[in-house]
Amino acid sequence: xxxxxxxxxxxxxxxxxxxxxxxxxxxxxxxxxxxxxxxxxxxxxxxxxxxxxxxxxxxxxxxxxxxxxxxxxxxxxxxxxxxxxxxxxxxxxxxxxxxxxxxxxxxxxxxxxxxxxxxxxxxxxxxxxxxxxxxxx
Length: 137
What we know:
- The protein has 137 residues and is an alpha/beta fold.
- The chain has helices at residues 4-15, 25-32, 48-61, 80-89, 114-117, 122-134, and strands at 20-21, 38-44, 70-75, 99-104, 107-112.
- It has a single domain (4-134), classed as Glutaredoxin.
- Helices cover 45% and strands 20% of the residues.
- Strand 4 and strand 5 (107-112) form a beta hairpin.
- The longest helix is centred in the middle third of the chain and has 14 residues, at 48-61.
């Protein structure tokens, strides 16, 4: 577990932009069991690629004309129960942090794993997500 004071600004980076933080397995189940609509889930992390690429890319993508109705985040190494539960819904993808997943009507429809995030700019990640959002039409 990371100290709360260390991760607070990293978590706030998303929650200040409309992402709801899920901290328990029950909260994750409640979100996942709602089969209506779409949402983006960011598995947040303390790593540099989360700070430089994943979080900024997710925030930029949510500004798209077509975007999920909701956005959520769980924090790896902090929200242990929530992350474990979220990863069960991300199967068959292996555990990855950071990661960004798009769900529509209860189904995982697009996934960016760490290896899709590392070495790519926030703009590239945003463009990838925007294409996935546009395909929801």
